[in-house]
Amino acid sequence: MANRDVNRDLNPSHLETLDRDLGRLSTLETATAYVSRPMMGMGIALLFIVFAGLIAALVLGHSGSTFIVVVAAAFGAYMALNIGANDVANNMGPAVGANALSMGLAIVIAAIFESAGALLAGGDVVSTIAKGIIAPESMGTSSGFISAMLAALLASALWVNLATWIGAPVSTTHSVVGGVMGAGIAAAGFGAVSWGQMSAIAASWVISPLLGGVVAAGFLWFIKSWIIYRDDKIAAARVWVPVLVGIMAGAFSSYLAVKGLSKVVSIDPVMSLLIGLGVAVAAWLIMIPVVRRQSQGMENRNKSLKVLFGIPLIVSASLLSFAHGANDVANAVGPLAAIVQASTTGDFTHDVSIPLWVMVIGALGISFGLFLFGPKLIRMVGNQITKLNPMRAFCVALSAAVTVIVASWLGLPVSSTHIAVGGVFGVGFFREWDAERRMRKAKTEMAGLPDLAPEERRRRKLVRRSHFLTIVAAWVITVPAAAILSAAIFMVIQGIGSGGVTG
Questions:
Q1: How far apart are CA 100 and CA 96, in angstroms?
Q2: Among candidate residues 140, 131, 48, 90, the one with its CA nearest the CA of residue 328
């Protein structure tokens, strides 16, 4: 009897049924994990937002402004999470797309350097975020100013969250600017806005990506002309890779001298350029024997060149993250610090001091946002706009550093986000132009070579037009979208406040 039961269980038809059932369970487990992963991320993000509110409550104790600051800390934490999810992709995306870094290692490096930049070089004092965009005096009272900053913070965070969801890297600075402008107009009318400043910001929509794209394309042209297309690629690389690394080191040193040393000593643009020049020469001299030793025994092919550019690319991506943390953490904590100062002292017209606990919320929020939600935008910037290798990705990073320095020196308003993404587009469009040029040259040398069909020409486009149009559209509507959203939120906050008073 027992043998019959065993034989029946081992029947092929029964085994097939068992396999199907196990397959369904396996599929169910995979689907459950796929669905639960984003839910887990949102749960951790929510816990961090609650944690930020608790920190604010503990720091302020039982003062009359505790509730407002707790709400502001939660909004600031939400904004910091979104900066990590969206903005940091511009620094790490090219390195991941070029396979110089794995996604996990890129996230770890970015989190460390973003936090270090925010905490070490983030600046103890920032100008009031409203100053230059709206006149703080036009807010009338500190309560009106606080409502405007709360609306601006929440609106800009919601807009960056939406942009991340649709896969568009946008400028968090422009989001905050739009939020402040919208709340200012709702509170004090169109006359409160500095339209000259807004015109400069609008100009940066064009200046930033064009500069980033042109500089990145220029560096790629140089690498192709003087290294890749040379008969002896390795000999050419031994000459020019140290020079390019020196330029990169000098550019970052100039930028970080201004940002990182501003707490200790005031450095003018000329001094920062001299510091950058000294570091560039030192890096060039150090890299000559390093590249020579690294290139020994390498084959004369492009694959060997990718190895030589790998480490400089990783270093440049790390430095970009440090610079981003030093500069853009203010987007999250600037309005929060302004609310803390206005609610505790009543002063909302002077410069804002950023408390350490506020800066920590910004740094941790950027890191958490990157860990939880950053991979989507990192893949988009690194893989889905155009195909990147270490040389092309290095050109993007180098373009970002050089363009920011040149623009700051000339007083041009630029966005680091737009520069980096513009650099990716510049590299892609240059590759298209270069491929077309070489094809025309081949046709001239080989008479009778047939023309490509229009469909084949479209297939060979090296930049995905759909991403290009989506990103440009998101850039253009960022300020007005954040402004409209902020004005609506400000009206709701004011309505709640007046309702509470009348009730």
A1: 6
A2: 90
Alpha-carbon span 138 to 98, nearest angstrom? 49
Q: What whole-number distance in Å separates Cα of residue 332 and Cα of residue 362?
A: 6
Specify burial of residue 159 (Cβ count, 10 A radius: 0-12, 13-18, 19+). buried
Coil, strand or helix at 352: strand
Q: Where are the alpha helices (DSSP H) in 346-380?
A: 356-379
pLDDT bracket for residue 503 (50, 70, 90):
very low
Amino acid at 60: L
126 in helix, strand or coil?
Answer: strand
Would you say residue 472 has pLDDT above 70?
A: yes
DSSP character string of 42-62: HHHHHHHHHHHHHHHHHHH-S
Residues 306-323: pLDDT tens digits? 999 988 999 888 888 887
Element (H, E) at 420: helix 416-445
Domain coordinates of the chain in residue numbers? 40-502
Per-residue burial over 395-418, b if 16 or more Cβ lie within 10 Å, else e, is bbbbbbbbbbbebbeeeebbbbbb
> What does the pLDDT average to over 96-123?
86
64 forms beta bridges with none
Q: What is the pLDDT of residue 335?
A: 85
Residue in 55, 85, 70, 66 with CA at minimum distance from that of residue 158: 85
pLDDT at 292 over 90: yes
Give the pLDDT confidence of 202-251 residue by residue, as tens digits. 888 788 899 999 999 999 999 999 999 999 999 999 999 999 999 999 98
Distances in Å between the alpha carbon of 266 and those of 184, 254, 271, 317?
A: 32, 13, 10, 27
Q: How many CB atoms lie within 10 A of CB 249?
A: 24
Which pair of tokens denotes residue 51? 């944690």
What does the pLDDT read at residue 162? 94
